[in-house]
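Hey,
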Amino acid sequence: CESQQICSDGGTVRRNTSRGTRKRCGDGWGETDGSTCSIGFLYPHDSGLYWCESMSGSIQLSVSGGSVILQSPVLPVMEGDDVTLSCRAKSPAHNLPAAFYKDGSFIGDGPSSNFTLKTVNRSDEGLYHCSISGQGESPSSR
């Protein structure tokens, strides 16, 4: 969360997995140090949605056993907003190029690991995921 400057104002990292709903970091999982939450080892039951809540906004991560994640805003997204999706690999040096998909169909790629949906509306609702060549693909996120 610090790298996104979303939780640098004292926000909380939370998760929703098969083992627990809306549990905050340090409450039976992870170790917290300010706005950083560290998990020593990820297991299949740790897969799920993770997000950071703060006064300045929020950010959501879909986490799975794979090496690629899709970063997206936490719902709700309002009609008319611009929404930026980010595709990240475990190894930051391998973040490019990233391809983005909606409901299984390719919607774009480019020289960065970000993709912006301009002035979203109801037709933009769907399942999004991304892939990074040689790294794999992320789980889908609504």
